[in-house]
Write a structure and sequence with these properties.
Layout lengths: L7 E9 L2 E10 L2 E7 L6 E8 L2 E9 L5 H13 L2 E6 L6 H14 L6
Parallel strand pairs: 3-6
Antiparallel strand pairs: 1-2, 2-3, 4-5, 4-6
Pfam family, one: PAC4
Protein name: DgyrCDS12225
Keywords: Membrane, Transmembrane, Transmembrane helix
Length: about 110
C-alpha cells in the first residue's frame, strides 16, 4: 500500500468456480489500474479508453486470449468512464467469471473504482 494521497488502493478476493482469485485496484486521477490473478506476476496488460459514446482498447503486452481480456477492459472503461489499465494473469476460461465479479463489485462499491 502507498502513502501517496493521490493514489487510492483496494484489495479483495473472490471465488471464481473453485479457485480463489485476488483483485488489486489502484485509482489515480483519471485512471484505474486493476490486477487480477492468483499469484503476483504481470503477464498481460490491456488499456481501455473511454471515448464519447463508446470506448476503445488495446493489448499493451502479453497474451491476448483472442481479445476477451481486452474487450473486458474496454467495457470496464466505458462503465467507469475513465481510462482503465488491466493486468490479467488467469486463463481465458475464467474471464467471464472475473468480469461478473468485477461488475457486481462496481455495482455495489463504485467508489472503489473511481
Amino acid at each position: 500500500m502507498t502513502d501517496n494521497p493521490n493514489i487510492r488502493e483496494h484489495k479483495f478476493s473472490s471465488k471464481c468456480g473453485e479457485e480463489l482469485i485476488h483483485f488489486y485496484v489502484a485509482v489515480f486521477s483519471g485512471s484505474t489500474y486493476i490486477w487480477v490473478g492468483r499469484d503476483c506476476r504481470l503477464s498481460a496488460l490491456s488499456l481501455g479508453l473511454p471515448i464519447t459514446g463508446e470506448s476503445k482498447s488495446t493489448q499493451i503486452f502479453g497474451e491476448s486470449f483472442e481479445g476477451s481480456v481486452q474487450y473486458m477492459t474496454e467495457r470496464l472503461s466505458k462503465k467507469l468512464n475513465r481510462q482503465v489499465l488491466m493486468s490479467y494473469t488467469l486463463s481465458q476460461e475464467q474471464a467471464f467469471g472475473v468480469e461478473k465479479i468485477l461488475a457486481e463489485k462496481i455495482q455495489n462499491e463504485l467508489e472503489l473504482f473511481t
